[in-house]
Amino acid sequence: MATYLDDTQRNDIDRLAASRTWRTQWPTWALIVAIYGGWFGVAAHAPLLGLPLTAALLAIFGAWFMSLQHELLHGHPTRSQFVNALLGFAPLAVWFPYHVYRESHLRHHDDARLTEPGSDPESYFVSAAEWQRAGIAMRALLVFRNTLTGRLLVGPAFAIAATGAQALDKIRDGDWRDLPAWLAHLAALVALTVWLQQMCGIPAWVFIVGAGYGSLALASVRSFHEHRIAQEPAHRTVINEAGWLWRLLFLNNNYHLVHHDLPQVPWFALRTVYQTSRQQYIERSGAFLVKGYSEWVRRYGFASVAHPVAIGTSDSGRRNPPASAGFAGKLRVKFMVVVRQGELHEAHLPAPAERQTAEQAL
């Protein structure tokens, strides 16, 4: 469901939708050709490129393909769910069937439940009960996962394990609806792996680990803290004013609040929509504004962006540090402090003095 800022924006987007670019979706068709052509072009030239460079390039194209799959499941470039599924079926990023990803991601778009464990399938928070059940090692991994370095290194493993466990749980509960998608995906993955090994000289482990895991790790840069816990749903989703290379790789999904408000807007129009109403979107997000992914590297490369435990959006929104440098001001922020026994206590810590007010950031 679309959420417009006002009638003026609605009319502006209607005019954009009537343009030849939007009606033909030619940028997305060109993107499909570029991604498939680039991925298979790299694979075909693996002996010339060498395995390390081949794996790195396949990981980049795999992450780009995942961005394309995201565009496909939101109804671009065609209105046919079947055609879009065919375009996103290939296991170029290895791990997840397109159908499973589509169903999971559409559940994620319930903005009222964003970040809630058990409701938001893309949440990086856990419930207090899950935290209590976790051992010391798992708690350490959960905290590490909420650093940028941890998100890249162990975040994909968490995602793979969670998706696999969910698939097995469904089968155990007698829900077989996803099984055909998994079987088709695994069959295509085996065929592609054999072709890569026999025709391109790319070992299976290089494809599965180097390219596949690498694709998930690179995609994790975008998803790192793109949602935070907050009382107001619109304040939970980030606006990241990233550079053009990141915008191209992630298909402008860095303007994430705009995408959540207007999921029907194709990737090539998101930047225009954002820039036209930049001030309004910054205010709507509660100043959840980031000046590029380098800000995450500087601030959270090895520091946890938030405690892994979520205790309800109405309360825990005050327990996690604001993600934007321009949001906290001189407020006192509640953090969750872990003690050895696994209990959670509130510690009232002053926000960093260098944080500006939202007005200064704008």
From TrEMBL:
InterPro entries noted in UniProt: FA_desaturase_dom (IPR005804)
Transmembrane segments: 26-43, 49-68, 80-98, 148-167, 179-196, 202-221
Superkingdom in the source lineage: Bacteria
Fatty acid desaturase domain ranges (all copies): 51-283
Pfam families cross-referenced by the UniProt entry: FA_desaturase
Keywords recorded for this protein, A-Z: Membrane, Transmembrane, Transmembrane helix
Protein's GO biological process: lipid metabolic process
Protein name, per record: Fatty acid desaturase
Annotated source species: Paraburkholderia youngii
